[in-house]
Amino acid sequence: MTEDTPATRSPLKLGILISGRGSNMIAIHNSIREGRLPGVEIAIVISNTASACGLAVCRELGLPTEVFLSKGRPRAEHDADVAACLRRHNVDLVVLAGYMRLLSPEFIHAFHNRIVNIHPSLLPAFPGLDAQHQAFDYGVKVAGCTVHFVDEHLDHGPIILQRAIPILDTDDADSLSARILKEEHIAYSEAIARIASGNYEFLGRRYVRRAS
Predict the structure, then answer these.
(1) Domain 12-209: which topology?
(2) How confident is the prediction for the chain on average, in pLDDT?
(3) Which of 93, 125, 80 is closest to 1 using CA atoms?
Protein backbone atom coordinates (compact mmCIF):
# COMPACT_ATOMS: atom_id res chain seq x y z
CA MET A 1 0.00 0.00 0.00
CA THR A 2 1.25 3.51 -0.82
CA GLU A 3 0.45 6.87 0.72
CA ASP A 4 -2.11 7.41 -2.05
CA THR A 5 -4.14 4.32 -1.13
CA PRO A 6 -7.01 4.37 1.39
CA ALA A 7 -6.06 4.03 5.03
CA THR A 8 -6.60 0.60 6.55
CA ARG A 9 -7.95 1.88 9.84
CA SER A 10 -11.29 0.34 10.74
CA PRO A 11 -13.83 1.03 9.50
CA LEU A 12 -13.08 1.93 5.90
CA LYS A 13 -15.57 4.70 5.21
CA LEU A 14 -17.23 4.77 1.80
CA GLY A 15 -18.72 7.76 0.04
CA ILE A 16 -21.02 6.41 -2.68
CA LEU A 17 -22.01 8.61 -5.62
CA ILE A 18 -25.19 7.77 -7.54
CA SER A 19 -27.35 9.29 -10.25
CA GLY A 20 -30.12 6.71 -10.57
CA ARG A 21 -31.47 3.57 -8.93
CA GLY A 22 -28.26 2.74 -7.07
CA SER A 23 -28.42 -1.05 -7.49
CA ASN A 24 -24.68 -1.43 -6.89
CA MET A 25 -25.00 0.76 -3.80
CA ILE A 26 -27.71 -1.60 -2.52
CA ALA A 27 -25.51 -4.62 -3.24
CA ILE A 28 -22.64 -3.06 -1.29
CA HIS A 29 -24.96 -2.25 1.62
CA ASN A 30 -26.21 -5.85 1.62
CA SER A 31 -22.63 -7.17 1.64
CA ILE A 32 -21.84 -5.02 4.67
CA ARG A 33 -25.04 -6.03 6.48
CA GLU A 34 -24.49 -9.73 5.78
CA GLY A 35 -20.89 -9.67 6.99
CA ARG A 36 -19.15 -10.08 3.64
CA LEU A 37 -17.47 -6.68 3.99
CA PRO A 38 -16.19 -6.54 7.57
CA GLY A 39 -14.56 -3.29 8.62
CA VAL A 40 -16.40 -1.26 5.96
CA GLU A 41 -19.24 1.23 6.37
CA ILE A 42 -21.17 3.61 4.14
CA ALA A 43 -20.52 7.09 5.51
CA ILE A 44 -22.58 9.06 2.94
CA VAL A 45 -24.47 8.58 -0.31
CA ILE A 46 -24.39 11.59 -2.64
CA SER A 47 -26.49 12.19 -5.74
CA ASN A 48 -26.25 14.87 -8.40
CA THR A 49 -30.00 14.67 -9.06
CA ALA A 50 -32.85 14.94 -6.58
CA SER A 51 -34.96 12.44 -8.54
CA ALA A 52 -32.50 9.54 -8.20
CA CYS A 53 -34.49 6.46 -7.15
CA GLY A 54 -31.57 5.34 -5.01
CA LEU A 55 -32.21 8.21 -2.58
CA ALA A 56 -35.57 6.75 -1.59
CA VAL A 57 -33.88 3.39 -1.02
CA CYS A 58 -31.29 5.08 1.20
CA ARG A 59 -34.05 6.58 3.32
CA GLU A 60 -35.58 3.11 3.77
CA LEU A 61 -32.17 1.69 4.73
CA GLY A 62 -31.32 4.55 7.06
CA LEU A 63 -28.28 5.65 5.06
CA PRO A 64 -27.28 9.34 5.21
CA THR A 65 -27.67 11.23 1.94
CA GLU A 66 -26.81 14.57 0.37
CA VAL A 67 -27.89 16.05 -2.97
CA PHE A 68 -25.75 18.47 -4.96
CA LEU A 69 -27.57 19.37 -8.14
CA SER A 70 -25.19 19.42 -11.09
CA LYS A 71 -27.42 20.72 -13.86
CA GLY A 72 -26.37 24.19 -14.99
CA ARG A 73 -23.38 24.41 -12.65
CA PRO A 74 -19.69 24.51 -13.64
CA ARG A 75 -18.20 21.05 -13.16
CA ALA A 76 -15.34 22.20 -10.93
CA GLU A 77 -17.68 24.18 -8.67
CA HIS A 78 -20.08 21.27 -8.29
CA ASP A 79 -17.27 18.80 -7.64
CA ALA A 80 -15.77 21.09 -5.01
CA ASP A 81 -19.04 20.91 -3.06
CA VAL A 82 -19.10 17.11 -3.34
CA ALA A 83 -15.46 16.86 -2.25
CA ALA A 84 -16.12 19.06 0.78
CA CYS A 85 -19.03 16.82 1.79
CA LEU A 86 -16.89 13.70 1.46
CA ARG A 87 -14.23 15.25 3.68
CA ARG A 88 -16.82 16.22 6.31
CA HIS A 89 -17.79 12.57 6.51
CA ASN A 90 -14.14 11.41 6.68
CA VAL A 91 -14.54 9.29 3.56
CA ASP A 92 -11.62 6.99 2.74
CA LEU A 93 -12.85 5.60 -0.58
CA VAL A 94 -15.14 7.23 -3.16
CA VAL A 95 -17.33 4.65 -4.91
CA LEU A 96 -19.02 5.56 -8.20
CA ALA A 97 -22.21 3.51 -8.48
CA GLY A 98 -24.03 4.60 -11.60
CA TYR A 99 -22.79 8.18 -11.25
CA MET A 100 -23.47 9.66 -14.66
CA ARG A 101 -20.96 12.48 -14.62
CA LEU A 102 -17.34 12.90 -15.59
CA LEU A 103 -15.28 14.04 -12.63
CA SER A 104 -13.17 17.18 -12.78
CA PRO A 105 -9.37 16.83 -12.71
CA GLU A 106 -9.34 18.71 -9.41
CA PHE A 107 -11.64 16.14 -7.81
CA ILE A 108 -9.62 13.21 -9.10
CA HIS A 109 -6.41 14.79 -7.83
CA ALA A 110 -7.97 15.44 -4.40
CA PHE A 111 -8.81 11.73 -4.04
CA HIS A 112 -5.89 10.26 -5.94
CA ASN A 113 -6.10 6.44 -6.02
CA ARG A 114 -9.11 6.66 -3.72
CA ILE A 115 -11.90 6.62 -6.33
CA VAL A 116 -13.27 3.41 -7.84
CA ASN A 117 -15.74 2.77 -10.63
CA ILE A 118 -17.46 -0.25 -12.13
CA HIS A 119 -17.89 -0.52 -15.89
CA PRO A 120 -20.07 -3.10 -17.71
CA SER A 121 -17.40 -4.39 -20.07
CA LEU A 122 -14.03 -6.10 -19.95
CA LEU A 123 -11.89 -2.99 -20.26
CA PRO A 124 -10.13 -1.77 -22.30
CA ALA A 125 -12.84 -3.07 -24.64
CA PHE A 126 -15.98 -0.95 -25.05
CA PRO A 127 -15.40 2.09 -22.82
CA GLY A 128 -18.02 4.80 -22.51
CA LEU A 129 -21.80 4.61 -22.64
CA ASP A 130 -23.90 1.54 -23.53
CA ALA A 131 -20.95 -0.82 -23.21
CA GLN A 132 -23.21 -3.88 -23.06
CA HIS A 133 -24.90 -2.91 -26.31
CA GLN A 134 -21.51 -2.17 -27.87
CA ALA A 135 -20.30 -5.67 -26.97
CA PHE A 136 -23.47 -7.35 -28.22
CA ASP A 137 -23.50 -5.41 -31.49
CA TYR A 138 -19.82 -6.16 -32.09
CA GLY A 139 -20.48 -9.87 -31.77
CA VAL A 140 -17.91 -10.75 -29.11
CA LYS A 141 -18.35 -14.10 -27.38
CA VAL A 142 -17.33 -13.02 -23.87
CA ALA A 143 -18.47 -9.95 -21.94
CA GLY A 144 -18.40 -8.90 -18.30
CA CYS A 145 -17.55 -6.08 -15.94
CA THR A 146 -14.47 -4.30 -14.61
CA VAL A 147 -13.82 -2.58 -11.29
CA HIS A 148 -11.03 -0.04 -11.61
CA PHE A 149 -9.48 2.96 -9.95
CA VAL A 150 -10.38 6.27 -11.57
CA ASP A 151 -7.84 8.51 -13.25
CA GLU A 152 -8.13 11.51 -15.56
CA HIS A 153 -9.07 9.40 -18.58
CA LEU A 154 -12.40 7.73 -19.33
CA ASP A 155 -12.65 4.13 -18.06
CA HIS A 156 -8.87 3.93 -17.92
CA GLY A 157 -7.45 3.61 -14.39
CA PRO A 158 -5.73 0.55 -12.86
CA ILE A 159 -7.94 -2.54 -12.95
CA ILE A 160 -8.72 -4.20 -9.61
CA LEU A 161 -10.71 -7.16 -10.90
CA GLN A 162 -12.88 -8.37 -13.76
CA ARG A 163 -15.69 -10.92 -14.02
CA ALA A 164 -16.45 -12.53 -17.38
CA ILE A 165 -19.54 -14.26 -18.75
CA PRO A 166 -20.21 -15.91 -22.11
CA ILE A 167 -22.58 -14.22 -24.52
CA LEU A 168 -25.27 -16.79 -25.24
CA ASP A 169 -26.87 -17.38 -28.61
CA THR A 170 -30.19 -16.67 -26.92
CA ASP A 171 -29.04 -13.29 -25.57
CA ASP A 172 -30.16 -9.92 -26.74
CA ALA A 173 -28.61 -6.66 -25.57
CA ASP A 174 -31.08 -6.34 -22.68
CA SER A 175 -30.63 -9.88 -21.36
CA LEU A 176 -26.86 -9.49 -21.60
CA SER A 177 -27.06 -6.24 -19.64
CA ALA A 178 -29.08 -7.96 -16.91
CA ARG A 179 -26.60 -10.82 -16.61
CA ILE A 180 -23.65 -8.42 -16.47
CA LEU A 181 -25.40 -6.43 -13.73
CA LYS A 182 -25.57 -9.57 -11.56
CA GLU A 183 -21.80 -9.90 -11.93
CA GLU A 184 -21.35 -6.22 -11.03
CA HIS A 185 -23.14 -6.78 -7.73
CA ILE A 186 -20.62 -9.50 -6.85
CA ALA A 187 -17.53 -7.78 -8.27
CA TYR A 188 -17.91 -4.41 -6.53
CA SER A 189 -18.04 -5.85 -3.03
CA GLU A 190 -15.12 -8.16 -3.79
CA ALA A 191 -13.05 -5.22 -5.06
CA ILE A 192 -13.86 -3.11 -1.99
CA ALA A 193 -12.82 -6.01 0.25
CA ARG A 194 -9.48 -6.18 -1.53
CA ILE A 195 -8.96 -2.45 -1.07
CA ALA A 196 -10.01 -2.59 2.59
CA SER A 197 -7.35 -5.24 3.21
CA GLY A 198 -4.63 -2.78 2.20
CA ASN A 199 -2.73 -5.76 0.81
CA TYR A 200 -1.82 -4.34 -2.58
CA GLU A 201 0.42 -1.92 -4.42
CA PHE A 202 0.69 -0.17 -7.77
CA LEU A 203 3.33 -1.17 -10.28
CA GLY A 204 3.05 1.44 -13.00
CA ARG A 205 -0.64 1.39 -13.90
CA ARG A 206 -1.04 -2.17 -12.58
CA TYR A 207 -2.85 -3.00 -9.36
CA VAL A 208 -1.03 -5.96 -7.78
CA ARG A 209 -2.12 -7.97 -4.74
CA ARG A 210 0.69 -8.82 -2.35
CA ALA A 211 1.23 -12.40 -1.22
CA SER A 212 -0.23 -12.94 2.24
Answers:
(1) Rossmann fold (3.40.50)
(2) 94
(3) 93
